[in-house]
Amino acid sequence: MELLGDTYFMCGDLREQHLREGPLSTWWLTPPGIDVDSFSARLGTTYDLMSHTFGAPAHPYRVFLRAHPHRGANASAHPASFVMAMNPSRPLDVGSLYETLAHELVHEWLHLDGSDHEKTWFVEGSADYYSLVLPLRAGMLDQAAFLAAVNVAARECYANPRRGLSIQQAQRLFFSDFLAHRLPYVRGMFYLADLDARLRRETAQKVRVDDLVRGVVRDRSAGEQIGISGWCTRVENTLHSPEMPHLDDLVITGAGRPSEDAFGSQFEMEMVDVPVPDFGFDSSTLVTGHVRGLVPAGAADRAGLHDREDIELPRYPEIVRMNVGDVLDIKVSRGGDSATISIPLTGATALVPQWRTRQHTTD
Length: 363
Known about the structure:
Elements: H1 2-5, E1 18-21, E2 24-28, H2 36-53, E3 61-67, E4 73-78, E5 81-86, H3 94-106, H4 116-137, H5 143-158, H6 167-172, H7 178-202, H8 209-221, H9 228-239, H10 244-252, E6 267-275, H11 285-288, H12 299-303, E7 311-312, H13 316-320, E8 327-334, E9 337-344, E10 349-357
Parallel strand pairs: 2-3, 3-5
Antiparallel strand pairs: 1-2, 4-5, 6-10, 7-8, 8-9
Helix pairs in contact: 2-3, 3-4, 4-7, 5-7, 7-10
């Protein structure tokens, strides 16, 4: 029944609406509004790269693209496939699209066993982590794009209005609160980056987090159940010190911060005071563009927004990139007239790690 629930059917004339790139194939009915040839070629290369990194043989893998009328895109992974919905008239930029799709590819291999709050940080965090670091290592992603994605993730993590939630609390809100939903992803990503740095330091660069991940993939494919305690044991066998305090600090409570060399010595880190994006309305407004949960005397209320209004605002990653003193411009239509309401980012702030390329390094 689980396999049946994960099965996706696409019906229609697909004879001319697909491309194959090695074991990976891409299928669509409505033209998706992107260059499918270059998209499929890059995704096929990424599939081969991940298959090799995780020590798992390549096998047929299908990507289904479908149209929807909404902003942005969403995707879900299934056995040997994933489905992505996008708006052909408003497609994502190439970088955001590739990052989303590379994330979904990782789900084909990397899993832990256990309850949701014990494994989601690994499943989603490893997908965020490897969708960035593997293309960077392979030269498929330049340092500027890599750092832009990492620094947005850091802001989503450490300036998140829900940052005080434990991972168990965040998991309970996983499908109802957009901001809480992001915490397992980004905390897991920065934990794995920090762990990779600790492994490299303690083993004179001989062991990476990749080596532990390959062991998990191998042993789970042989039928072994590996949960959070099994993961910690594998780390401890290499580092010879308790791992749970690190996991608690960076994932369970989120109180800790990754080390400066989490992504390698070619980057340096600084702590930056950035805005906490809490505008005084329900977080779903950032996704739907429909104002809900307006807080009396909150920033949006003071700026003149009304509950249940439809608004147009930048995509959330663009909002997260904003700095203290910037102004968020929101377009709203009232009675056939269009107006712009501005919310200055002068509220709460948080110190967040941000990375940049280190000058004069040979690493």
